[in-house]
Design brief:
The complex is a heterotetramer, with two copies of chain A and two copies of chain B.
Chain A: H1 11-22, E1 28-31, H2 36-48, E2 54-57, E3 61-62, E4 84-85, H3 88-96, E5 102-105, E6 109-111, E7 116-117, E8 120-123, E9 126-130, H4 137-143, E10 146-150, E11 159-160, E12 172-176, E13 180-185, E14 188-194, H5 200-205, H6 222-231
Parallel strand pairs in A: 1-2, 1-5, 5-10, 6-11, 10-12
Antiparallel strand pairs in A: 3-4, 6-7, 8-9, 12-13, 13-14
Chain B: H1 7-12, E1 19-22, H2 32-40, E2 46-49, E3 52-53, H3 55-62, E4 66-71, E5 73-74, H4 84-91, E6 96-99, H5 102-114, E7 118-121, E8 135-137, E9 144-149, E10 155-163, E11 169-170, H6 178-184, E12 187-195, H7 198-203, E13 215-220, H8 238-245, H9 250-259
Parallel strand pairs in B: 1-2, 1-10, 2-4, 3-5, 4-6, 10-12, 12-13
Antiparallel strand pairs in B: 7-9, 8-9, 10-11
The chains are: A alpha/beta, B alpha/beta.
């Protein structure tokens, strides 16, 4: 339970609220493949903080109005009552032109420089463990103005000193995990705030690079929690936990 | 010219070793029935490409049809987990995964579609993918510009909602990379939910973005994307994806392939 | 953000010397009312581009608004003859005609839309246009490849059949270069036959290819393409084209501009 | 009147029939801007000789079924009952890929090498006479397999020894005028056949480069003339004569 408020919240809710707040001043936000929590963050930001935010996603129906949370990148919910159409290729072009403001990316490893690995773990010239591939991340991370890296598991296998392979590098702005929020400053990740349900010790013990202490994140507010819970009655936000 | 073919006849057009661009994205508008027929016919050494794949490429890996995969992402999503046969095949070096960004897949297809040998792309900074590509000097400035080579598919295989007998076809909802694949490929194989009249195509002529002239085969297969979805007709089937993912060995895979369209 | 503007307000967004990509082609879906307002406001030194133009660029030449034209073709057709003010302005060196092929106009817009500094193009053999462009060596082969530079319009000016208040817009019938112009330009000005509700846009969502986020102004002007056509609402008016072509001097032109929307 | 048959025909009808016959074995044919006679040629070829011919045009509605002849490149008749949609950009891409079989181009000047000028007449570094610009011709002529040059006026100002400017050069296959048909062989235009209403002398006197004699073209047939005349009751085919 939170140390800073009497509201209870789950790690998913902590991450959703933390990511949604980053979008308060965003012009547009893109979520790529397999982006369960970014969906909720963008949806919440549009409800509560930034109704004019332009929401871009893989199916390319802009600003849809889903009636319940999608279970996948290509869920029909993402095609509902949208405002216009764009191709995935043209979303990448927007990023290449510098017109994409915020994008959410995830990966298996992230290191202290904000590089991330969605490719593989090498074994000499061979591939020891094959991951999913980085999807659009190499372009997005290099050209979208503010990249938010999110990961549902925070441990030393994920938060490493140096990635085995740099799939994507560049404009990492913040990193959101169930335990904390990092921001990138002077080329390295700095702890920005800690989940009030966690502690500096827990974050530090699960992070593969040195960090300095930071204040607690403001936990999800009553408004945030009510909106999320009313919308997601099936608990789709917890699918990756 | 009669282009209407059976699934068997159309898959027989594909020769071992050819390069295929596969339409749809993840579990949407995948030409799944055609993919299964490639597996049934025991194709070998195919080179397949797509931005983001799962069922299709995983199944082709499982059935040992593939030599090379060019893609940005090969995985199921949270509900289902990773693509197990893809991973195993790459880790065992049975399949070469030519990892790309979804963006570089698109850019390589654009080069082929535009009839030019390479495409300049945005800087990818320190991504390891950069080591796969060459830079050129921008002739109108001084900066180095990253490029990707054209990739020319022998076939684009695309599942559509409606096609007429000549392969003039309508795609409803997201088009993904299907149009650029159709342009980049030498020839096109269409599987379609329904073969319709020319008049039916004319009703939505602005959405009839696949012209028939490069289409070599039109195969009517209702539910032909299953277990993937085909908007707006049917959603993907979680149950059928899980059925596929429960297959443990080649014998079970063969049974599965025989039971399905 | 309120994007609904009058013709006057929207044309006032355009500053002297800016580069404009003008939508439509020849006498189809030309943003004619907007072009006339640019003339009424006495814009100077505009740089305009399009694949194939007539009424729009000829009028801007007549009104001395233009410094440079980048296009493949500027002329009326058999029914009406050549574009007299364009010809005169170029021959008198008041306007620089940066002659291109329609294809190289598109390729330069593609480079801008893709965020890359240049675009490789097909060999144009011994065309004199080649002297305007640079070649680079294909980094994946040995051949020399012709290229064109990116051209970045400040504005894309597009006439559509339907737009909502936020500039999410539908184009029916031929799209011509309008989509790539919208992508390549910094901002978009839309003139529309009708401002409609979001629900009306949703009915044809797959044709709503202009997203509102780069649209700076939405101007409702029924018949705003006249004398050009706007499919399927109205055809071009031969009578009105002839009326324009009968204008002999600046005084008559000013009268014409005052009489028209 | 024709010397070879008892059918009367106009120069437009001669040109239409001559161009339509070239399309007998064509896979596809593209007509660009301001292509009045190519329209009739393609339409006639599809009616009489090659119903499977794919007809591509600027508005990009493939294989339309006009109910009467269009008056311009963007006439609504070219949008009627078509079979599919393609953008102009993608037609150019087809040509660049080598997939365009036949295209019709016109111009102000054509020279003995099959170069043509749609750009201007220079006066030193200046422009003496500005023409329309070559539209897509520079690409099309260089990359479409067979280019048919057509011109409704045959005189020494049009058929010149050497163009003042080469707007487009390359794959010229045949040249069709009211007087004759040329074909390109060994890099130069050769007279292939003469309008039965004309003569070698007339062609020669109106051509700015040396030519050798050739047989008469087979004039338009009864079938050809009937189809053209039934379809074009307003005489749109004569608009440029």
């Amino acid at each position: 339970m939170s140390q800073n408020s009497n509201l209870e919240f789950t790690p998913a809710e902590y991450m959703i609220a933390s990511m949604a707040r980053i979008l308060k001043d965003a012009e547009n936000a893109f979520m790529g493949v397999a982006s369960n929590l970014p969906f909720f963050a963008i949806w919440l930001a549009k409800q509560l903080y930034n109704p004019e935010l332009t929401w871009l996603n893989i199916p390319g129906k802009i600003n849809p109005l889903p009636t319940k949370p999608p279970k996948s990148t290509v869920d029909f919910q993402l095609l509902k009552s949208s405002s216009a159409s764009i191709t995935l290729a043209n979303i990448f072009d927007m990023s290449a032109r510098g017109e994409l403001d915020v994008a959410f990316l995830s990966g298996v490893q992230i290191d202290k420089f904000g590089n991330f690995n969605l490719s593989h773990i090498p074994d000499g010239d061979k591939i020891k463990i094959q991951f999913t591939g980085g999807a659009g991340s190499a372009l997005i991370c290099a050209t979208t103005k503010r990249v938010i890296f999110w990961r549902t598991k925070h441990d030393k296998r994920a938060f490493v000193d140096k990635c085995a392979v740099n799939t994507a590098t560049g404009n990492v702005y913040k990193v959101v995990s169930p335990l904390c929020v990092f921001s990138k400053k002077d080329g390295v990740l700095n702890l920005e705030s800690i989940n009030p349900d966690s502690s500096f010790e827990e974050v530090s013990n699960n992070t593969g690079f040195p960090i300095s202490n930071a204040p607690f994140t403001e936990g999800p507010t009553e408004d945030e929690l009510k909106l999320i819970r009313d919308f997601d009655k099936e608990g789709i936000r917890d699918i990756e936990f | 010219m009669n282009k209407i073919k059976s699934l068997q006849e159309s898959a027989a057009l594909v020769k071992d070793g050819q390069r295929l661009a596969i339409g749809g994205l993840l579990l949407q508008r995948t030409p799944s029935a055609f993919i299964r027929e490639l597996a049934r016919q025991g194709k070998k050494n195919l080179k397949v490409m797509k931005t983001a794949a799962n069922y299709d490429f995983d199944l082709l890996c499982f059935a040992d049809c593939v030599e090379e995969i060019t893609a940005g992402f090969v995985s199921f999503e949270a509900e289902f987990g990773l693509a197990p046969n893809f991973r195993r095949s790459v880790e065992n070096e049975k399949v070469h995964f030519n990892e790309n960004s979804c963006y570089t897949v698109i850019s390589s297809l654009r080069a082929a579609a535009f009839g030019v040998p390479f495409m300049p792309i945005a800087d990818l900074k320190e991504s390891y993918l950069v080591s796969k590509f060459e830079t050129v000097s921008n002739p109108y400035g001084n900066e180095q510009t990253l490029t990707v080579p054209a990739i020319y598919p022998d076939w684009a295989v695309i599942h559509v909602q409606k096609s007429d007998e000549q392969g003039n076809a309508i795609i409803y909802g997201p088009v993904f990379e299907d149009l650029i694949m159709a342009q980049a490929a030498k020839k096109i194989i269409l599987t379609t939910e329904k073969i319709v009249s020319e008049q039916e195509i004319q009703k939505d002529i602005d959405l009839a973005i696949i012209p028939g002239f490069k289409v070599a085969a039109v195969v009517e297969i209702p539910q032909g994307a299953k277990p993937a979805s085909c908007y707006p007709f049917y959603d993907y089937s979680a149950e059928q994806v899980k059925e596929y993912l429960s297959i443990k060995n080649k014998t079970e895979l063969n049974n599965y392939l025989q039971q399905q369209t």
